């Protein structure tokens, strides 16, 4: 199993004992996902926390008019999960799709609960993950309601330069809440200045 990347990730949050490393290796299931395949589709209950070992994913919503709205991207050493569906055990309104061939490690909810009950280290690690997700969600909401499209694009460039070579303009535009044509105009304006 490819747990080295995950163990390194955890070690950056809190050091693990050898026993804890063995628990991780036993609990997380490796899965390969082909490009354009899904690890979650609308109507399914999200049953896993997913850690990306290799590849790129997007989480998105399709509105009543059929338009896609990207909510999150995830690449190596990132997590992607529909938190609301996972914790409430309700059908998801989201899709999580592989944009590249990928390898992930997935943790079932019952294993996560056992982690919390049996080991304070994992409780603290997942609390830190949840806190970071909440901070990022707040930042995104505030930016959406108070920033111009150009400011959102500049912030995206600053925070996520690694995505520029891996995502299409259409994907980035959807994440920023603008049309691909408008994003192209912003990019041309920046090149010209």
UniProtKB/TrEMBL annotation:
Name of a matching Pfam family: cNMP_binding
SUPFAM superfamilies for the chain: cAMP-binding domain-like
Cyclic nucleotide-binding domain location: 16-110
Alphabetized InterPro entries for the sequence: cNMP-bd_dom (IPR000595), cNMP-bd_dom_sf (IPR018490), RmlC-like_jellyroll (IPR014710)
UniProt name for this protein: Crp/Fnr family transcriptional regulator
Organism of provenance: Hymenobacter aerilatus
Source lineage: Bacteria, Pseudomonadati, Bacteroidota, Cytophagia, Cytophagales
